[in-house]
């Protein structure tokens, strides 16, 4: 949305971690606790894509047995993104079900680059950049771990679940190359590595093909799993569906290095559905298909809110089941399915849930209130005349949102599309025109279809 307020226009558009302890916040679940196990819950939510042993995992997760689960995140960017949230929230669901969880920051593997699902090789980044990214992502992970609601269902006859964070740079920083190749590398056969979907599904489209560096990524991810298995008795790795080949490599390595394991001690793998755009393309850090939403900084909150609100009706139930923090599958099926489409209950619930979890309940309330001001049925000028909206409301509501100063002399001559480019709502005047034609631009609560519209005295709400 775009607003003219007075003369302002705002657009809504250390590396080693070791063991850490975390507190969890207290949220109230919308409905009585579900009376089925985690496997059934994840299945009902449509999250499970593939596992290495369905029968064994179902037996463990729907029983009273406790296991240790890990998820890895490579800090190849300074912020998390929305695509990270499906596996992260699923990891936290394991904690709520009474399982130990480990979040692994890939300070080492980020220097290699995962080829899974990519058409070209990643650009190399310096170790200093990766270290800076690691510190930033670490803080984000810690914040999320502390924000996760206290919904843990711990049985009296098993230990309280634990939360651990490690950085895999600690596995490799003192390791010598030759011992690693002779002790670990010898367990990988080239023909098997070539068959992994991380190689066949990604691959490079250029003439030179994939480098040895990225080709070897699966060895390092496999060794990560082996170390977590050995050090923390971790027996389950989570990942997106494009990670299945890498996860299987880890399962195979553990079995080779620790033969004779009992069934209940066998390593397992589970992949989850990927977040995709309308074209079915993965939404990630480097995705080109649109829909990428960064997580962490306050200026990203509107991108997240709008992404949630704009979910199509035919996708909202599925999306809410994947992302909702405290809503049961039954609540979603009963409430969202029966709500009238124009109410957009599912979209509003998704937005409030995700923003509350990722940015806090106060921020979710602020954004929701501003959204009502922006997109309510009455125009903003009408709300001002009736006293429903005050200038202080808009100032506090839009705190942190990008703005530009417009001198009084420019009013009556400046075009809307020019202001949109200045404020960063569009990269070019051409893009601004397309946004207007698409119905995505509002001035003082009223939709504007023409980007060449002149902003005049009638658009000024306060001086």
Describe this structure in words.
By secondary structure, this protein is α/β, with parallel strands linked by helices. 42% of the residues lie in helices and 11% in strands. It contains 20 helices and 13 strands. It has helices at 38-44, 54-61, 82-96, 127-147, 169-172, 177-183, 190-195, 197-200, 212-215, 217-232, 244-257, 301-309, 313-323, 329-338, 345-359, 361-375, 380-385, 391-397, 416-423, 429-437, and strands at 2-5, 8-11, 48-51, 68-73, 80-81, 100-105, 163-167, 236-240, 268-272, 294-295, 403-405, 442-443, 446-447. It has a six-stranded mixed sheet with strand order 3-9-8-4-6-7, sandwiched between helices. Helix 11 links the parallel strand 8 (236-240) and strand 9. Helix 13 (313-323) packs parallel to helix 15 and helix 15 packs across helix 16 (361-375). The longest helix is centred in the N-terminal third of the chain and has 21 residues, at 127-147. The chain is globular, with a radius of gyration of 25 Å. The two termini are 21 Å apart. Residues 1-24 and 203-207 have low confidence and may be disordered.
Write a brief caption for the model:
The protein has helices at 38-44, 54-61, 82-96, 127-147, 169-172, 177-183, 190-195, 197-200, 212-215, 217-232, 244-257, 301-309, 313-323, 329-338, 345-359, 361-375, 380-385, 391-397, 416-423, 429-437, and strands spanning 2-5, 8-11, 48-51, 68-73, 80-81, 100-105, 163-167, 236-240, 268-272, 294-295, 403-405, 442-443, 446-447. The protein has 463 residues and is of the alpha/beta class.
């Amino acid at each position: 949305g775009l607003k003219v307020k007075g003369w302002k226009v705002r657009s809504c558009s250390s590396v080693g971690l070791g063991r850490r302890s975390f507190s969890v916040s207290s949220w109230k679940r919308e409905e009585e606790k579900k009376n089925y196990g985690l496997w059934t819950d994840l299945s009902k939510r449509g999250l499970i894509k593939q596992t290495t042993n369905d029968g064994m995992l179902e037996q463990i997760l729907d029983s009273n047995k406790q296991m240790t689960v890990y998820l890895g995140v490579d800090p190849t960017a300074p912020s998390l993104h929305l695509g990270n949230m499906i596996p992260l929230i699923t990891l936290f669901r394991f904690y709520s079900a009474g399982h130990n969880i480990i979040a692994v920051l890939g300070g080492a593997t980020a220097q290699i680059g995962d080829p899974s699902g990519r058409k070209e090789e990643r650009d190399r980044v310096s170790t200093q950049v990766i270290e800076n990214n690691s510190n930033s992502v670490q803080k984000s992970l810690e914040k999320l771990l502390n924000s996760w609601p206290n919904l843990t269902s711990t049985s009296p006859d098993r230990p309280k679940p634990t939360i651990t964070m490690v950085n895999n740079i600690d596995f490799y920083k003192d390791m010598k190359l030759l011992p690693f190749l002779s002790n670990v590398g010898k367990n990988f056969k080239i023909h098997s590595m070539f068959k992994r979907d991380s190689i066949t599904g990604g691959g490079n489209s250029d003439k030179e093909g994939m480098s040895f560096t990225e080709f070897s990524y699966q060895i390092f991810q496999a060794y990560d799993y082996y170390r977590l298995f050995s050090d923390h008795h971790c027996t389950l790795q989570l990942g997106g569906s494009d990670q299945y080949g890498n996860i299987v490599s880890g399962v195979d390595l553990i079995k080779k290095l620790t033969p004779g394991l009992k069934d209940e001690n066998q390593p397992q793998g589970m992949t989850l559905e990927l977040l995709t755009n309308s074209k079915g393309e993965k939404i990630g850090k480097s995705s080109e298909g649109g829909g990428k939403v960064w997580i962490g900084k306050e200026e990203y909150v509107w991108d997240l809110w709008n992404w949630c609100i704009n979910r199509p009706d035919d996708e909202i139930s599925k999306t809410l089941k994947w992302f909702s923090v405290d809503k049961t599958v039954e609540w979603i099926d009963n409430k969202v399915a029966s709500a009238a489409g124009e109410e957009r209950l599912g979209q509003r619930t998704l937005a409030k849930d995700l923003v509350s979890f990722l940015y806090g309940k106060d921020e979710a309330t602020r954004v929701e209130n501003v959204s009502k001001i922006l997109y309510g049925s009455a125009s903003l000028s009408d709300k001002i005349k009736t006293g429903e909206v005050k200038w202080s409301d808009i100032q506090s509501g839009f705190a942190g949102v990008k703005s530009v100063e417009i001198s009084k002399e420019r009013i009556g001559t400046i075009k809307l599309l020019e202001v949109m480019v200045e404020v960063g709502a569009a990269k070019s005047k051409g893009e601004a025109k397309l946004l207007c034609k698409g119905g995505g631009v509002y001035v003082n609560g009223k939709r504007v279809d023409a980007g060449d519209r002149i902003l005049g005295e009638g658009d000024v709400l306060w001086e």
